[in-house]
Amino acid sequence: MNPFSSGTRLRDMIRAIRACKTAAEERAVVRKECAAIRSAISENDQDYRHRNIAKLMFIHMLGYPTHFGQMECLKLIASAGFPEKRIGYLGLMLLLDERQEVLMLVTNSLKQDLNHTNQYIVGLALCALGNICSAEMASDLAPEVERLLLTRDPNIKKKAALCSIRIIRKVPDLAENFLSPAASLLKEKHHGVLIAGIQLCTDLCKVSADANKHLRKNCTEGLIRILKDVSNSSYAPEYDIGGITDPFLHIRVLRLMRMLGQGDADTSEYMNDILAQIASKTESNKNAGNAILYECVETIMGIEATSGLRVLAINILGRFLSNRDNNIRYVALNMLMKAIAVDSQAVQRHRTTILECVKDSDASIRKRALELVFLLVNDTNAKPLTKELIDYLEVSDQDFKGDLTAKICSIIEKFSQEKKWYIDQMLKVLSLAGSYVKDDVWHALIVAISNAPDLQGYSVRSLYKAFQTSFEQVSLVRVVVWCIGEYGEMLVGNVGVLEVEEPMTVTESDTVDVLEACLTGHSSDITTRSMSLIALLKLSSRFPPTSERIKEIITVHKGSIVLELQQRAIEFNSIIQRHDNIKSSLVERMPVLDESAYMVKKANSSQENIVAVKSGQTSLAGTSIMLPNGVGKPPAAPLVDLLDLSSDDTPVPTSTSKDFLHDLLGIDLTNSSSSGIAPSGGTDILMDLLSIGTPVQSDISPKTVSSNQGFAPTTKPTPTTVQVVDLLDVLPSNGSVAGDQSPLYPSITAFQSSTLKVMFSFKKHPEKPQVTEIHATFMNLSSDAYTDFVFQAAVPKFIQLHLDPASSNHLPANGNGTITQTLTATNSQHGQKSLAMRIRMVYEVNNQEKLEQGQINNFPPGL
Q1: Per-residue buried b or exposed e for 86-122, using 16+ beta carbons within 10 Å of the residue's own CB
Q2: What is the model's pLDDT at position 671?
Q3: pLDDT: is 721 or 276 the higher one?
Q4: What is the rounded CA–CA span in Å between residue 498 and residue 589?
Q5: pLDDT digit string, tens, across residues 561-576
Q6: Cβ atoms 839, 631 nearer than 8 A
Q7: Is 383 exposed, middle or buried (0-12, 13-18, 19+ CB in 10 A)?
Q8: Residue 60: how many CA atoms within 13 Å on its side-chain side?
């Protein structure tokens, strides 16, 4: 016999397919088998039609197309014999779905089979209708199904009830036709019919409020009777699971009772007794019993139950928390989170057990228990709960410290009633997990200290002690630096000592030692080092004996490879050396920070973040999102994309709102003075102090220069001559800048992300104004070194770009080294169109290739 003829047995085809060693061999076998089946279909082979459909079903399960066999299924269904109908209906359910138009052709056959005298054929039709019924078929065949609900055969009743569920889901308007038959099913003794009938009643309640009222009035008593009979019945081996009679029926009845009792006090009161009986008598040493108890608890919480019954339910959940099974504990924690809204006092009784779950080895249980503890906190238990959580913070896993720290800080901020307790608890958190604390937390602490003059001395001394043991915690170090810079004389002079404090002696030299350690520490980032330099400048005025030492420390950083630190060191050194007359006014103590304004701003910022996450990041076509560091996501434009950098799914650094503490401290690194944005006009000393004598430009008669290559328009301002205060002795002696001098182009931050920073400086030759020499400096801001570093750039057609070889392809970590590279850009339309560039950096970190890219929109005018 031909192995691929329609007479091949199904098992032979399966054996041939499983013997294939490659996908190509399998496709070849299936292709030949499908060709043989097609031939049999075209020849109208009736002898092997059922065998061919069986083969097609197996081929369909392998994922191959079998649509050509759909009509054969209809022919088998129309045949008289049960074996043919069985294969035909099975093929119908597998090969077709309710969206197929050919399905309408089977409606008449289904109607005939639903009225057939053979109960097995009726069962086949009900199974098929319950699986693939469409809205049109449901409307046509609903009367037949409704009639079958009243037959005597329990198997037909069960299948008719399941088919009815499909019908009312497809056509909810037919729900009222099934109300009476569904209610009558609840009087059956057969458990299979009962479960199907209860599920039908549950779906009726979901699709129709009238059905809910009808069943509540007529079926509540029947459900209670079913539950009593099942729970009090003797041992029945056909329904027994773990010593409990039919837990599936228990659970279905409880779910329906929950729907009927929700929002109805009279019906709920009628249910209280049976629910109390189930909750008290059901054994909890087996999974089946725990499932019934959990469903019973959900029902009690979902209806208008008495307070005593709710306490009983919450106590059951408390017992679940002591169970060894992690799944049972997890669902108990979930249910307790819902129960807090109903009876928080009853949940509070299990607070100790819930706290133990926070220390569980399972990560899911830890997180869920932490969320529950957070909901349990109130004014009366905030202090003991906070103490428990902080004690656990010291020994918790590293991957859990972030979530735990965030919750503890939220509790402290929300429930602190006195400033001293707030400061003490925050210092404990910063000492144990300062590296996991978000910026807004330590900002809020600084604001609180600023607004508590009687606790400023206590705070700076406590921070000094904490620093001695926890100097590696980043957020703690920043708060220490800020407070020593502001209140260093209180630390040295022991000002405002409280009775609870132990006496301590700190010299002026000790405070400088702390700041020097923060400035040179290997774990200190740019923000911490910048804050340390500012604090040292302040102490140079307040502690004159240490002025020379501070000057030496600052001078060392004049050669720093980090441009931000280098600039600050040069500026501060000049202030110390040449401007003693204004130094004291520049570094005097900051005014008290407005606590209420900060809280409002923080709340608004949080709300904006939530809205941004929900609405998504969207921008109008033809616009460019401008970012502080000059990197923007460009619109669609006809720019020749040399590097294929126009993918819309490229991640772009997002801009953040300035934090006013950063503004006050002068450490806003993302919007530093090197970003290429001209400062506003004016001669205020404090405003121009950190500009290093940069000429101030005002946008008088701006000229808009538009690029034809799709880049965002740029505005070319007309510079005006203004007087500049010469703080750093880098300007001509007359203190003014002539407008006709050769322009100097400031360096810009071309690109900055959390891991990489790119700086551009510019040089032009007077005889070649169209040629710009760009010196690029790449700095690694992460803690991992980069290897195989490659820089690429793309420019519009009117610009020619030449890249010299880079100084290296290895970029050290933490800004401990840089890569430099020179670019030469020739602008053929100089004076008409400004420079524009897209850049891409590719490198390897930890044996994984990374890519960062962006567009530079902030080239200085005139290039």
Answers
A1: bbbbbbbbbbbeeebeebeebbebbbebbeeeeeebb
A2: 39
A3: 276
A4: 22
A5: 989 999 999 999 888 8
A6: no
A7: middle
A8: 18
